[in-house]
Specification:
Layout (H helix, E strand, L loop, with lengths): L3 E4 L6 E5 L7 E6 L6 H13 L4 E6 L2 H9 L5 E5 L7 E16 L20 E3 L5 H11 L13 H9 L4 E5 H6 L5 E5 L6 E9 L7 H15 L2 H8 L19
Parallel strand pairs: 3-4, 3-5, 7-8
Antiparallel strand pairs: 1-2, 2-4, 5-10, 6-8, 6-9, 6-10
Helix pairs in contact: 1-6, 1-7
Length: about 260
């Protein structure tokens, strides 16, 4: 039986070991907290369905530790947001997610179908995860030159969601993460005007001999997620995983 083991020691990064078996093939994958999205869940479901005998060790770490771990051989691959920093790593794009606005359940902003820079003028803005310089430049253009407050960041999306739900700020985060957090008391609205996207990449050590057939197959699966709709792919693979039903994604309405 396929089973999962969750373990963590003190303040150490949390690692999830999936597909425990007698197999000697192990993929050590590091992820940063800002890519914990439905698309990553779809990738892991596809990996389980198509290669159940390969053990996956998934570790959540800050981006800086992810890059360091790749350089010293601790991880086979790392999945995180595109970075502006030049790194001695091999990089492949995976998927893009649209940024949107997170607001409290009874925010006056809910009167807007899409949120303009003018509507945000009197609100404190917080970004749910650290963007690249390129993304921040596009976001500043959409929000207006006087909206430098959007560069304020918190350590995690979860902290941003708590502050937004409590009414302390308005959040800017990937649309999929905001929709996931509806039960936490926040609501999503799109940004008006041009869309702003954040890109998730997969990183590997640039050294020769670091890539194995198993990691190459994992990367190919990851790239298919970026080329197809997340929910369509998840529906296609769930019949391989008995007794695991996906909940219906029915939107909940919010009142002012």
């Amino acid at each position: 039986m396929i089973r999962s083991l969750l373990s963590g020691l003190g303040s150490s990064p949390i690692a999830v070991f999936m597909n425990i078996s007698s197999s000697t093939s192990i993929l050590k994958i590091a992820v940063s907290s800002d890519v914990l999205s439905p698309k990553l869940a779809t990738l892991l479901a596809l990996q389980r369905a198509e290669e159940p005998d390969t053990q996956v060790s998934l570790t959540e770490v800050p981006a800086v530790d992810l890059f360091q771990g790749l350089n010293n051989g601790q991880y086979d691959a790392g999945i995180t947001r595109r970075t502006s920093t030049i790194l001695p790593l091999s990089t492949l794009p995976l998927w893009c997610e649209e940024l949107a606005v997170a607001m409290p359940l009874r925010s006056p902003l809910l009167a807007h179908g899409a949120i303009t820079s003018e509507a945000l003028r009197d609100y404190q803005l917080i970004y749910g995860c650290t963007p690249s310089n390129e993304t921040m430049s596009r976001l500043t253009d959409v929000l207006g030159c006087d909206q430098d407050r959007a560069s304020s960041t918190v350590t995690s999306f979860e902290l941003m969601a708590v502050l937004v739900a409590a009414g302390y700020c308005i959040g800017i985060a990937p649309r999929s993460r905001i929709l996931q957090a509806r039960s936490s008391g926040i609501v999503m609205r799109p940004l008006a005007g041009n869309s702003v996207w954040v890109e998730t990449d997969i990183f590997q050590s640039a050294g020769k001999g670091k890539t194995t057939p198993a990691i190459e197959r994992f990367i190919r699966r990851a790239q298919t997620i970026g080329e197809s709709d997340c929910h369509e792919t998840l529906s296609r693979v769930t019949h391989h995983i008995p007794h695991e039903q996906q909940p219906a994604d029915s939107p909940t309405s919010a009142t002012r």
